[in-house]
Specification:
Layout lengths: L1 H35 L3 H30 L16 E3 L2 E9 L4 E2 L13 H13 L6 H9 L12 H4 L27 H7 L3 E2 L6 E2 L5 H6 L14 H13 L13 H9 L1 H4 L2 E2 L4 E10 L2 E12 L2 E9 L1
Parallel strand pairs: 3-4, 5-6
Antiparallel strand pairs: 1-2, 2-7, 7-8, 8-9
Helix pairs in contact: 1-2, 3-4
């Protein structure tokens, strides 16, 4: 009850600060934007962008306040709760915020030098594809896009394939800079991209937060064990994790063993598996839309929390 009460106070503070920010932004617009751009659409576009920026600022405060209240990140904190559309004057702000640590990091599929894949993480990604009913061979194509060599894996593709396309380009052989780059990888159709997008990232630490991860990711995490291992996490076991954490958020990764004997065996028997999980998040994805007179501007941003500060790694105004 105390945590929820504190989160409620933090939410109230966030919304109050949001209103102040927007009022200040509107005042700046009234005094300066007229000289910068004329016309109704131009004015509405600038105002909508300012509303979107205010939403991002409020999200930043929510993430910062949560870190001050708790040493773990859960789906019961203010940053993770749905925020209704905020009506302000003749404008509207809609903000969504989620942690990136609930997802699988594609950039971690290769070792830091890029010379070889991290086979354990590749197995996790391959299992995620299978769970999502996507051809698991796409994992090879993603690894080929990331690694530094030009030798294709069994189900992959290197520059020789991409240069043969009607609009040729080379395999990047480097890390993804944006998730949208995944669309360039062989076999990743728009439909597959949209299906995969909620479960993958390029910005996280690489360890999945078991307090926030969805069922599909939890199931995928147990892939790549030795034959003598305790077995993979089933849909039923993943559901047990999700139900358990609602009342008992994990305060250490070891506590996942409290959910079932199988998970306790998995934690104790596999040091590599323990490295794949965490109970805290550092990277957060914000999407803030400002709307005014049928004019919409959206800011898509990813920030990394360091102490009480947020450093933006990605920022795009749409």
């Amino acid at each position: 009850m105390k945590l929820r009460s504190e989160s409620g106070v933090a939410l109230l503070i966030t919304l109050l600060v949001l209103v102040l920010i927007v009022i200040m932004a509107m005042e700046i617009f009234r005094t300066g934007a007229r000289a910068a751009q004329t016309g109704a659409y131009g004015r509405d576009s600038i105002k909508a962008a300012l509303l979107a920026e205010a939403g991002v600022a409020a999200a930043k405060i929510a993430v910062r306040e949560s870190s001050r209240q708790s040493q773990i990140d859960t789906l019961d904190q203010v940053w993770s709760r749905p925020v209704p559309a905020i009506e302000l004057g003749d404008g509207t702000i809609l903000v969504t915020l989620e942690d990136e640590e609930r997802k699988i990091n594609l950039n971690k599929l290769v070792l830091p030098n890029g010379n070889a894949p991290d086979e354990r993480r590749v197995a996790v990604f391959r299992r995620l594809l299978t769970i999502l009913e996507i051809d698991p061979s796409f994992a090879d194509a993603v690894v080929d896009w990331l690694d530094v060599d030009d030798t294709p894996r069994v189900g992959g593709a290197e520059s020789a394939y991409y240069l043969s396309l009607p609009y040729p380009y080379r395999a990047k052989n480097d890390l993804f800079d944006t998730l949208d780059e995944l669309r360039l990888v062989r076999g990743i159709t728009p439909e597959i991209f949209e299906k995969l997008k909620p479960f993958v990232t390029i910005h996280s630490s690489g360890a999945v937060n078991i307090n926030t991860a969805p069922k599909e990711v939890l199931m995928a995490l147990s892939a790549g064990q030795d034959a003598a291992g305790p077995g993979e996490i089933s849909a039923a076991t993943a559901n047990l994790i999700i139900e358990y954490r609602k009342a008992n958020p994990f305060r250490s990764t070891q506590e996942i063993g409290n959910v079932s004997p199988m998970l306790g065996d998995l934690y104790r028997s596999s040091a590599p598996w323990r490295e794949l999980i965490d109970i805290k998040s550092s990277a957060f994805h914000v999407r803030s839309t400002g709307a005014l007179s049928n004019t919409y501007r959206t800011i898509d941003a990813v920030g990394v929390r360091s102490g009480s500060d947020i450093q933006w790694r990605f920022w795009r105004l749409e």
